[in-house]
Amino acid sequence: MQDPNSTLAGRKFGNKPAIPIGIGLTTAAFMFAAYSMYKKRDMHTQWGLRLRVAFQGFTLGALLWYSYKATKEKEVRNYANIRKIDWNKLEQEAAEAENAKTDLPKNIFSQEKE
Questions:
Q1: CA distance 73 to 70
Q2: Which pTM does this prediction carry?
Q3: Are the C-beta atoms of residues 62 and 18 closer than 8 Å to each other?
Q4: What is the SS3 assignment for 38?
Q5: Does residue 107 lie in a domain region?
């Protein structure tokens, strides 16, 4: 038997259930508004369109929330991989580089003929 999460939609929305729910509710509200418009029920049409906007807001909120969560989880994983910096060794290497730089001629671009 095939794994239910093996389909593209299953993989994309398997751990984000609010997104397909919001899409379905938005579609249903729009279809309700279109049917009400066909039947010339003005109040039902208005309610259907208002519900559509509300469900679109819900879907957008879910998308933003899942994006925020994914970013935070990624940041936590990245902090675990940061190596520790030995500041004393870094300062020592910088001092050695400064000392080595003083051994250079003052003006390396001079055009003096020897």
A1: 5
A2: 0.56
A3: yes
A4: helix
A5: no
